[in-house]
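Appendix C: a fully annotated inverse folding record. The material below is reproduced so that readers can follow the format used throughout the book. The structure is listed first as tokens, followed by the designed sequence.
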């Protein structure tokens, strides 16, 4: 279940990156000076960062950590 949830999350973030609806818009300005497309990408960058943090926390292969620990023990 967790695997499919993460796959759906990554798919949504990937599809949100393709913001064709903001390509021709320059107004409205966000906070009075920031074009809407730039504000969208700033928000998208934060969401992408959070998505990567979630992936590292829940999808990082534990076997790699165990192999690293074993390798460190044998090299001593």
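Designed amino acids, in order:
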């Amino acid at each position: 279940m967790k695997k499919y949830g993460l796959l759906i999350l990554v798919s949504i973030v990937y599809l949100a990156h393709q913001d064709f609806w903001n390509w021709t818009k320059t107004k409205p300005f966000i906070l009075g000076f920031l074009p809407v497309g730039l504000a969208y990408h700033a928000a998208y960058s934060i969401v992408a960062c959070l998505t990567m943090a979630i992936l590292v926390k829940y999808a990082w292969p534990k076997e790699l950590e165990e192999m690293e620990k074993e390798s460190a023990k044998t090299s001593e």
